[in-house]
Specification:
The structure holds four protein chains of four kinds. By secondary structure, chain A is mostly helical. Chain A folds into two domains: 258 residues, no CATH class; 71 residues, no CATH class. Chain A contains 19 helices and four strands. Chain A has a two-stranded antiparallel ribbon. A two-stranded antiparallel sheet of chain A has the order 2-3. In chain A, strand 2 and strand 3 form a beta hairpin. In chain A, helix 13 crosses helix 14. The longest helix of chain A is centred in the middle third of the chain and has 26 residues. Chain A starts with 7 loop residues before the first helix and ends with a helix. In chain C, the strands form four sheets. Chain C has a seven-stranded mixed sheet, with helices on both faces. In chain C, strands 2-1-3-4-5 form a five-stranded parallel sheet. In chain C, strands 13-14-15 form a three-stranded antiparallel sheet, with no helix packed on it. The radius of gyration of chain C is 23 Å and the shape is globular. In chain C, 65% of the residues are buried. In chain C, helix 10 links the parallel strand 11 and strand 12. By secondary structure, chain C is α/β, with parallel strands linked by helices. Chain C contains 13 helices and 17 strands. Chain C folds into two domains: 240 residues, 3-Layer(aba) Sandwich (Rossmann fold); 134 residues, Rossmann fold (3-Layer(aba) Sandwich), CATH 3.40.50. Chain D has nine helices and ten strands. In chain D, helix 3 crosses helix 4, helix 3 packs parallel to helix 5 and helix 4 packs across helix 5. The relative contact order of chain D is 0.18. Classes of the chains: A mainly alpha, B mainly alpha, C alpha/beta, D alpha/beta. Chain A: It is a multi-pass membrane protein. Chain A: One of its GO terms (molecular function) is branched-chain amino acid transmembrane transporter activity. Chain A: Keywords: Cell membrane, Membrane, Transmembrane, Transmembrane helix. Chain A: Pfam families: BPD_transp_2.
Chain lengths: 377, 343, 451, 253
C-alpha cells in the first residue's frame, strides 16, 4: 500500500469494473440486453445512481428530487445542440455546469433541514420543476412534446465551422450504435473512478462521518453544511451528466424525466443494489432498466414459443401463469423483487454478494481479520 | 367578487378536509410506529376498490343468453336480471342506491385485515430498520397491490354512483340568507367533509381519551419502558396499523364518487399525503388537519384566474411552494415535535 | 458465452432457456446482402417480417394499450391469413393477399411505453436495434407519437401512429416517416362546431378548462375558433395542471362566471374526473342566461365514457370511429374483434388495426419493404372500406382525411359498451383544411445511413 | 486571580422559560489547570458546559476564552479555537473504524472547518495516520483500530472519544462526567490516563459526580447548586466548606 495514487484493492475493483463495463456486449448477450441503446442506458443510469449514492449512500441525505438535475442536464445538452454545435463535449460541459448551479441553489435551501424534511424539500423543488417544465416553461422545454432538434436550429458554432449533420458527434465521430455505447461506457468508467476517489478521500470520510454522527462533526470543528452541499452539488452534477448523455444518445428532453417517480427510481436503484457501496447502485440501475426494457417485452407469443416443448395443456397453464409476471405484469415482478430483496438482503444485492463470498471462503480461511490489520507501512 | 371568494373559501375547506382525511392514516403510522409508509396510497386505493367490489356484488345479475339474437360484435345477446333486487326487493334498491356508504361495511373489516396482515407479515420487521429500507419495502408492496388490482379490475377507471338523493348541488348560500343560486356546492362533497370531520374527531378522541390510546402514546415515547410494565405494546401497534389502514380505506371508499377509481389512484395521492403530513409536522394529528386546510385553501385561491394572471403557473406548484416555505420557516412543520424523523 | 444467433436452430434456442426466449423474438441483424435487396434498416431477409408495437401496458392508459394490443394481434392474424380475414375483405383498393406481407409471415414484438416519451423512444429503439422491427406503431399520447416519429425519421423506420390527437403530430412536428390515421384537434373543432350551433344556438357563452400542455392548448384553440365562428363568446379559458385529480377549485369559478357552456379540453383520466366533478357541481341542472347550462367534451372515447359512467349521458364530443356505425367495414371489424375477444373494439383498437393493414397494403403495392418506396405508396393513397368512408392519406402532411364522428353520451345504454351514440358523421370535405396552416416540414425520405 | 486566566465565564445567566438554570456565574480557569465543577443533579452543570461550547446561548453575560468572546459562535468555530469536548454519552462515529474516528479530528485540526480535498486518498495521509495510531496506543486502543467504533464497549468508546479530543491538542478540554457508568477498574484507568495528559499542559474543565475522580484530578473546584456557584477554591478547602457539605454532600459524609 505504498502507492499514494490508489490502493491495491481499489485498483482491482476499478479494473474489474472497467472490464465488466467494456465487455457488456459479450456478457449481456445471453440476457438479450446486448444492444447499444440499452447498454447506453445501463451506463447512463449507472452514472445517475453513482452520483446519487455520493449524497445518499455516503452523506446520508435522502433526496427525492434528483430527477430534476437529470432533466436539467438533458435540457441543457439539447439547448447546446440547438444553439452551439452537435459536438457532445460542449453539451456535456454545459449540462454539468447548469445542473451543478441548479443543485447549488436547491441544495443550499434544502440542506437547512435534515431527515424526511430534507427529502420533502427536494421533492417539492423537483415537482415544481416538473410541473413548470410541463406547462408554463414550454418556451424553454417544449412542454409535453419534449425539446427536440429541428432543421431550423441555429447551431452557431457548427455554422461557423461549416459543419453540417443532424446528430450528435464526438469530434466529428458520430455517436450511434456501438460508438455511442463506448462513449457512454468510457464516461461511466471515469465517473466510477471519480466516485471511487471521492469515497476513499479524506473528503469522502467526512461525508461518511456526517452520516454517522453530525453532532460529533460539529464539536470536532467541522462546518458540515458546505460538506453536505458539496456532496449535493457533486451528485447533482453526476445527474446532469447522465441527463446530458441521455440527450446525446437520444436528442430529446422530456419533462417526465423530472417527475417524482423518476426521482424515486434512482432511490430504488441505489437501495436495491446496496446503499453506500460503489458497485451496488450501478448494479441496481442495471437491474431496474433491464426489467423496464426486457422483462416488459415478453408477450404471450414469445412465452408460447419458449414453452412450446411442454404438452399443450400444460403449456397453456404455464404461459397463463408466467404472463402475469412478465410483459404488462413486469411491475408486479419488480415490486416482488423489491420486497424480497429488502426482507432477505437489507443491504441490497451487494450484501448478497458479500454473504456468498463469506460463505464460500469461510471454510478455507479462519483468521480473516488479518489482512486489514497489517500496518500500512 | 365577494361570492367568488366565498365559494373559493368553501372549496378550500372542502379540499382541506379531504386532504387531512387522506393523510390521516399516514400520519398515524408515522407518529406511532415511526414507519415511512409508501404503501399508504395503495391502502387508499384498496379502500376505493372495496367500494367497487361491493357495488359489483350487489349489482350481480343472472345472465341468460339469448342465442336467437346477436349483438353487433357477434356474441349472443345476454338478458340480465339483477339479483339483489330479486332477493331483497325494495331494500335491494336502497342498497344499490347507497352502495358507496354501505360499502364502508365491507371496507372496514377488509382493510383491518389487510392492515393487520401487512403489519404482522412485513412492517413489524422494519421498525428498527433504516427509513430507506422501509421506503423500498412499502413501495414494493404498493406496486404489488396495485398490479393485483389491475389484474382483477383492469386499468380503466370504474365510476361509482352518488346516492340519488345526494346528487347535484346544495344551495348553501340560500341557507345562510344569501341570494339563491350563487353559493352552491355539491352535496356529496359536503357529505365527505362531514365524514372527514367525524372520522378525524373519532380517531383523535380514541387516542386521547381511551386507555388504549394512552398506552400507544406512551409506547411512542418509550417503547421499552412500556414493554417492561408488562403491556404488550406490539399487539397495540398492530392494531394501530390496522386502524390506519381502515382510515385510509374509508377515505378511499367515500372518495370514489368524486373520482372514479383506477388501480393507479394510490400513487396519485401518495405525494400529496406526504406533503400534508410533513407540512403538518410528522406524526401530529392536529398538524395534519391544519396542513390539510392550509394547503386546500391556498390551492383553491391559487387556482383563480385573477391569481394565475399575476403569477403564471402558481396553481401548478402552490402545494410544493407552501411545503418549502413552511419547512424553512418552521423546521418541523406546523406542529411537529423535535427530533421526529430527523435522523 | 458468446454465440452467433445465425447458426442456431430453433431447437437449440429453446434449450438455452432464458437466452432462447429473448433470441427467438429477434430476427437477424447481420444482413445477407442479396443483389435484389436495397440496403436499409432491418430489411427482412428470412421468411418473417417483424413489426414493433409500442403500447402503454402500464400507467394510466393501460386499458387503451391492452385494446390496441388485441387489435394488432388480430391484424397480424388476418395478414397471415388466419381468422376471418377481417377488413382485408373490405379494403378497396387492396393489394393484400392474406399470405403475410410480400410472402413473409408477419410477427410482432412489444414494448411497454408507459405513456412516457422517453420510455417510448427507448422501446422503439430496442425493437429497431435488437429485434429488427421494420415498422413501429402504437402509442397513446401525442407526446409519445411526436417523440417516436422523430426517432423513426432518424432511423429510417416507418412509424404508423396510434392514438394521437394533437395538431402537432402532422403539423409542426410532422415527419416523412410518420403517418397518422387518427383525426386531430383541429378537425374536432370543425366537426363539432355546427352540431353545437344547431343544438345550443348561436348565442352562448363558453368557459374552457384546458389541460395545461401542448395538446390541450391546440384543442382549446381549435374549439375556440370553431365556436367563436358560430357567434359564441369565450368567457374564460383556464389552464389546469395535468393529473390534477380534483378539479373542484377550477369548477367553483365557473358557477358565477356568466357562462352557460363548459368546455372540457381534457383527455383520459383528467376528462373522466373533470366531467364527473362538473356534473356533481350541478352544472347541468343549472340555468344561466335563461338557458340550460351545458357541458362539452370535444374529444371523447368509449373508454373515457365508461370511466365517467352516468355523467356522460347527453354530452357532445367527437370520435375518430365508433363500433356501432353501420358501414360494411365497421360491421366486419366489430364482428371480427368481438368474435376474438368478446367485446366490441374501441377507437384505439380500430386505428391500430387499420394502420397495420394500411402499412402492409402499401408494402404490397410498393413490392418492397424499402421505406422510401413504401412512403410513396402511402402518400396520396385513396382507399375506402375501413369504417371511415372514403379516405385519403394526404401526401402533404401524412394526415388521413376522412369523416369525423360527432358523438353524444347515450341516455339509455343497452350494454356496458353502448355508451356513445353517433350523432353525425361529418363528411371528409367539411373537416378538410389546408395542410400549410400548421407549418412543419416532412424531411427527407432517403433512409439515414444508421441502424 | 492571576494573569494567566484562559477561560472566563463572565456573569452568565440562562433562563429557560422563566426558570433560572444559571445565575450570576463567574468562573475563571487558569491555563494548565484542571478545574472541576461539581454539584448535585440539576445544579446546572451541563447547562454551563453547553453555554461554554456554544450549544446554548446565555440569556446574559459572556464566555471569554483567551481574550475572544465565545458567545454567539457556532460549536465548530469554538472547536477550531481550540476547545474540545467529551460528552456524557460518547458522541462518536459508530459506522467508522476506530482509526478513522481518531483521524477525523486530526484532519479538522489540520484542514480547518471545510476543505474540499477529494483527490487525495486517505491512505496517503501517513502523518495524520501515524499521529492517530500513537494516540490510540496511548489510550490502549491500538489493537482495536480496525474495528467499527459502534462495536466497542462503553468504556472503550469513552476512551476513544478522549483520544479524538486529545489528538487535536486542544487548549481547553471539557469533560462531561468522563467516568459515569464505568466500573471501578475502568474509572481508575481513566484517571491514570487523565493524569498522564495533565503533564501536557492542557487546561481542563471536568464535570463530575464521582468525588474520587474529582479529588484525584482537580486543581481547583467550583461547586454549583441551584444554578449558582456557592463555593470555589482548592480541593481541600472545598472539602471542608460546610456550605458545600450541606448543599451537595448532604449529611452522608
Amino acid at each position: 500500500m505504498n502507492t499514494a495514487l490508489i490502493s491495491r484493492n481499489d485498483l482491482l475493483l476499478f479494473l474489474g469494473f472497467t472490464i465488466a463495463v467494456l465487455a457488456m456486449p459479450i456478457w449481456l448477450q445471453p440476457f438479450g440486453a446486448a444492444y447499444p441503446d440499452l447498454m447506453q442506458r445501463f451506463a447512463i443510469y449507472g452514472i445517475f445512481a453513482l452520483g446519487f449514492n455520493i449524497l445518499f449512500g455516503l452523506t446520508g441525505y435522502l433526496s427525492f428530487g434528483h430527477a430534476a438535475f437529470f432533466g436539467v442536464g438533458s435540457y441543457a445538452a439539447v439547448w447546446s445542440f440547438k444553439l452551439l454545435t452537435m459536438d457532445a463535449v460542449p453539451a456535456l460541459v454545459f449540462a454539468v455546469v447548469i445542473a451543478g448551479l441548479f443543485a447549488l441553489v436547491i441544495g443550499y435551501v434544502s440542506l437547512r433541514r435534515s431527515g424526511i424534511y430534507f427529502s420533502i424539500l427536494t421533492l417539492a423543488f423537483a415537482q415544481m420543476s416538473y410541473n413548470l417544465a410541463y406547462s408554463v416553461l414550454t418556451p424553454i422545454t417544449n412542454g409535453e412534446t419534449g425539446l427536440q432538434l429541428t432543421l431550423a436550429d441555429p447551431r452557431h458554432l457548427d455554422r461557423m465551422m461549416g459543419v453540417t449533420g443532424g446528430s450528435p458527434t464526438l469530434f466529428g465521430q458520430p455517436l450511434f450504435g456501438y460508438a455511442g455505447f463506448y462513449f457512454c461506457a468510457g464516461l461511466l468508467i471515469v465517473a466510477f473512478f471519480i466516485a471511487q476517489r471521492i469515497t476513499g478521500s479524506p473528503f469522502g470520510m467526512m461525508l461518511k462521518a456526517i452520516k454517522s454522527n453530525q453532532t460529533r462533526m460539529h464539536y470536532t470543528g467541522f462546518n458540515t453544511r458546505p460538506y453536505a452541499l458539496a456532496a449535493f452539488v457533486i451528485s447533482g452534477m453526476y445527474a446532469g451528466l447522465a441527463g446530458a448523455m441521455l440527450a446525446i444518445t437520444d436528442p430529446l428532453a422530456g419533462a417526465e424525466r423530472m417527475q417524482w417517480t423518476a426521482s424515486g427510481e434512482v432511490v430504488l436503484m441505489t437501495i436495491l443494489g446496496g446503499v453506500g457501496t460503489l458497485v451496488g447502485p450501478v448494479l441496481g440501475a442495471w437491474i431496474i432498466k433491464y426489467f423496464e426494457n426486457i422483462f416488459s417485452a415478453f408477450n404471450e407469443g414469445i412465452l408460447h414459443r419458449t414453452f412450446a416443448f411442454l404438452p399443450d395443456g400444460v403449456e397453456d397453464v404455464v404461459v397463463t401463469v408466467t404472463s402475469k409476471f412478465v410483459g404488462e405484469g413486469w411491475h408486479l415482478t419488480l415490486g416482488l423483487v423489491f420486497v424480497l430483496i429488502v426482507v432477505f438482503l437489507p443491504g441490497g444485492i451487494m450484501e448478497g454478494v458479500r454473504r456468498l463470498f463469506n460463505w464460500a471462503r469461510r471454510p478455507a480461511s479462519v483468521g480473516r481479520a488479518s489482512p486489514r490489520t497489517q500496518p500500512a507501512e | 367578487m365577494f361570492e367568488v371568494i366565498l365559494l373559493q373559501f368553501v372549496n378550500g375547506l372542502d379540499k382541506g378536509g379531504a386532504y387531512a382525511l387522506i393523510a390521516l392514516g399516514l400520519t398515524l403510522v408515522f407518529g406511532t410506529l415511526g414507519v415511512v409508509n409508501f404503501a399508504h396510497g395503495a391502502l387508499f386505493m384498496l379502500g376505493a376498490f372495496c367500494a367497487v367490489t361491493f357495488q359489483k356484488l350487489i349489482t350481480l345479475e343472472t345472465v341468460t343468453v339469448d342465442p336467437t339474437q346477436l349483438s353487433p360484435w357477434g356474441t349472443p345477446v345476454e338478458v340480465r336480471e339483477p339479483l339483489v333486487q330479486a332477493w331483497l326487493g325494495d331494500f335491494g334498491a336502497v342498497l344499490v342506491n347507497y352502495s358507496v356508504p354501505f360499502s364502508l361495511l365491507l371496507a372496514i373489516p377488509v382493510m383491518l385485515i389487510v392492515g393487520i396482515v401487512m403489519e404482522r407479515g412485513l412492517i413489524k420487521h422494519f421498525y428498527k430498520r433504516p427509513h430507506a429500507e422501509q421506503i423500498l419495502v412499502t413501495f414494493g408492496l404498493a406496486i404489488v397491490l396495485q398490479e393485483i388490482v389491475k389484474a382483477i379490475f383492469g386499468a380503466n377507471p370504474i365510476p361509482q354512483p352518488v346516492p340519488a338523493d345526494l346528487r347535484g348541488a346544495a344551495d348553501i348560500g340560500a341557507m345562510i340568507g344569501l341570494t339563491p343560486g350563487i353559493i352552491t356546492y355539491p352535496i356529496w362533497r359536503l357529505v365527505y367533509f362531514l365524514f372527514s370531520a367525524v372520522v378525524i374527531a373519532a380517531v383523535f378522541a380514541f387516542l386521547r381519551f381511551t386507555t388504549f390510546g394512552m398506552v400507544v402514546r406512551a409506547g411512542m415515547a418509550d417503547r421499552e419502558t412500556v414493554g417492561l410494565l408488562g403491556i404488550n405494546i406490539d399487539r397495540r401497534f398492530t392494531i394501530m396499523f390496522g386502524l390506519a389502514a381502515v382510515v385510509a380505506g374509508m377515505a378511499g371508499v367515500m372518495y370514489t364518487p368524486l373520482l372514479p377509481p383506477n388501480y393507479h389512484l394510490g400513487m396519485d395521492f401518495l405525494v400529496l399525503s406526504f406533503v400534508v403530513v410533513v407540512v403538518g409536522g410528522m406524526g401530529s394529528l392536529p398538524g395534519a388537519v391544519a396542513a390539510g386546510f392550509l394547503l386546500g385553501i391556498l390551492q383553491s385561491f391559487a387556482s383563480m384566474t385573477q391569481v394565475k394572471a399575476l403569477v403564471p403557473g402558481i396553481d401548478q406548484i402552490i402545494i410544493y411552494l407552501v411545503a418549502v416555505v413552511v419547512l424553512l420557516v418552521r423546521p418541523r412543520g406546523l406542529m411537529g415535535r423535535r427530533g421526529v424523523m430527523e435522523a | 458465452m458468446t454465440y452467433s444467433r445465425k447458426g442456431m436452430s430453433r431447437r437449440t434456442l429453446i434449450k438455452t432457456g432464458l437466452a432462447g426466449v429473448l433470441a427467438t423474438g429477434v430476427s437477424p441483424m447481420i444482413f445477407t446482402r442479396g443483389a435484389w435487396a436495397q440496403e436499409f434498416c432491418n430489411n427482412p431477409t428470412g421468411d418473417t417480417v417483424t413489426i414493433g408495437l409500442n403500447l402503454p401496458l402500464s400507467g394510466a392508459y393501460a386499458e387503451e394499450g391492452a385494446d390496441e394490443q388485441k387489435a394488432y394481434q388480430l391484424a397480424v392474424q388476418h395478414l397471415n391469413g388466419e381468422g376471418d380475414g377481417g377488413l382485408i375483405n373490405v379494403l378497396t383498393p387492396s393489394a393484400l393477399k392474406g399470405n403475410g406481407v410480400l410472402g413473409k409471415k408477419v410477427a410482432f414484438v412489444t414494448s411497454d411505453s408507459q405513456t412516457k416519451a422517453d420510455v417510448a423512444r427507448a422501446g422503439a429503439t430496442r425493437m429497431i436495434e435488437r429485434d429488427g422491427a421494420i415498422m413501429i406503431t402504437g402509442g397513446s399520447s401525442s407526446a409519445e407519437a411526436v417523440a417516436v416519429q422523430g426517432l423513426c425519421q432518424e432511423m429510417g423506420v416507418i412509424f404508423m401512429a396510434g392514438l394521437t390527437h394533437s395538431n402537432d403530430t402532422t403539423g409542426k412536428d410532422k415527419k416523412r416517416y410518420g403517418f397518422r390515421h387518427f383525426f386531430n384537434a383541429y378537425q374536432s373543432g370543425i366537426a363539432l362546431g355546427p352540431v353545437l350551433g344547431q343544438e345550443y344556438g348561436a348565442d352562448r357563452r363558453a368557459y374552457h378548462l384546458t389541460a395545461d400542455y401542448t395538446w390541450g392548448w391546440t384543442q382549446e384553440e381549435s374549439i375556440k375558433a370553431a365556436t367563436e365562428a358560430l357567434g359564441w363568446e369565450t368567457v374564460q379559458a383556464v389552464r389546469t395542471p395535468l393529473g390534477a385529480a380534483d378539479f373542484s377549485q377550477y369548477l367553483t369559478p365557473v358557477l358565477n362566471s356568466g357562462a352557460d357552456v363548459l368546455i372540457l379540453n381534457h383527455y383520459g383520466n383528467d376528462m373522466v374526473n373533470s366531467l364527473t366533478q362538473a356534473v356533481q357541481f350541478g352544472l347541468r341542472d343549472r340555468q344561466a342566461n335563461g338557458k340550460t347550462f351545458e357541458i362539452v367534451t370535444p374529444l371523447i372515447s368509449e373508454l373515457m365514457a365508461k370511466g365517467a359512467g352516468e355523467n356522460v349521458k347527453g354530452i357532445f364530443g367527437t370520435s375518430n370511429w365508433h363500433w356501432n356505425l353501420q358501414d360494411p367495414g365497421t360491421v366486419a371489424f366489430t364482428k371480427s374483434f368481438g368474435a376474438a375477444y368478446g367485446s366490441p373494439p374501441s377507437q384505439a383498437a380500430h386505428t391500430a388495426y387499420v394502420q397495420t393493414l394500411l402499412y402492409a397494403d402499401a408494402v404490397e403495392r410498393a413490392g418492397t419493404f424499402y421505406p422510401p418506396e413504401v412512403i410513396k405508396a402511402l402518400e396520396g393513397f385513396e382507399f375506402d372500406g375501413m369504417g371511415n368512408g372514403a379516405t385519403l392519406y394526404r401526401a402533404d402532411d401524412h394526415q388521413c382525411m376522412k369523416s369525423v364522428l360527432v358523438v353524444r353520451g347515450n341516455e339509455s345504454p343497452t350494454s356496458q359498451f353502448d355508451v356513445l351514440n353517433v350523432v353525425r358523421e361529418v363528411p371528409r370535405e367539411e373537416v378538410d383544411y389546408d395542410p400549410t396552416i400548421f407549418g412543419g416540414e416532412l424531411g427527407p425520405a432517403e433512409p439515414a445511413p444508421m441502424c | 486571580m492571576t494573569d494567566n486566566v484562559v477561560l472566563h465565564v463572565a456573569d452568565v445567566h440562562k433562563n429557560f422559560a422563566g426558570l433560572h438554570a444559571l445565575s450570576d456565574i463567574d468562573l475563571s480557569v487558569e491555563e494548565g489547570q484542571t478545574h472541576a465543577i461539581i454539584g448535585p443533579n440539576g445544579a446546572g452543570k451541563s447547562t454551563l458546559l453547553n453555554v461554554i461550547v456554544g450549544r446554548l446561548a446565555p440569556s446574559r453575560g459572556a464566555v471569554i476564552f483567551d481574550g475572544m468572546v465565545l458567545t454567539g459562535r457556532k460549536p465548530y468555530e469554538i472547536n477550531q479555537i481550540g476547545i474540545a469536548r467529551v460528552f456524557q454519552t460518547p458522541e462518536i462515529f459508530p459506522d467508522l473504524t476506530v482509526l478513522h474516528n481518531v483521524m477525523i479530528p486530526a484532519l479538522s485540526k489540520r484542514d480547518g472547518p471545510f476543505r474540499l480535498n477529494m483527490m487525495r486518498t486517505l491512505d496517503s495521509e501517513t502523518a495524520i495516520r501515524q499521529e492517530a495510531e500513537d494516540i490510540l496506543a496511548d489510550v490502549g486502543l491500538h489493537e482495536r483500530r480496525t474495528t467499527h467504533a459502534g462495536a466497542l464497549s462503553r468504556g472503550d468508546k469513552r476512551r476513544m472519544e478522549l483520544a479524538m479530543c486529545l489528538i487535536q491538542k486542544p487548549r481547553l478540554l471539557l469533560l462531561d462526567e468522563p467516568t459515569a457508568g464505568m466500573s471501578r477498574h475502568d474509572t481508575n484507568t481513566t484517571i491514570e490516563l487523565l493524569k498522564k495528559i495533565k503533564s501536557r499542559g492542557m487546561t481542563k474543565v471536568i464535570i463530575e459526580h464521582d468525588m474520587h475522580v474529582v479529588f484525584s484530578l482537580a486543581d481547583r473546584i467550583s461547586v454549583l447548586a441551584g444554578g449558582r456557584i456557592i463555593a470555589e477554591g482548592l480541593p481541600d478547602a472545598v472539602r471542608g466548606d460546610p456550605r458545600v457539605r450541606e448543599a451537595y454532600l448532604g449529611g452522608a459524609h
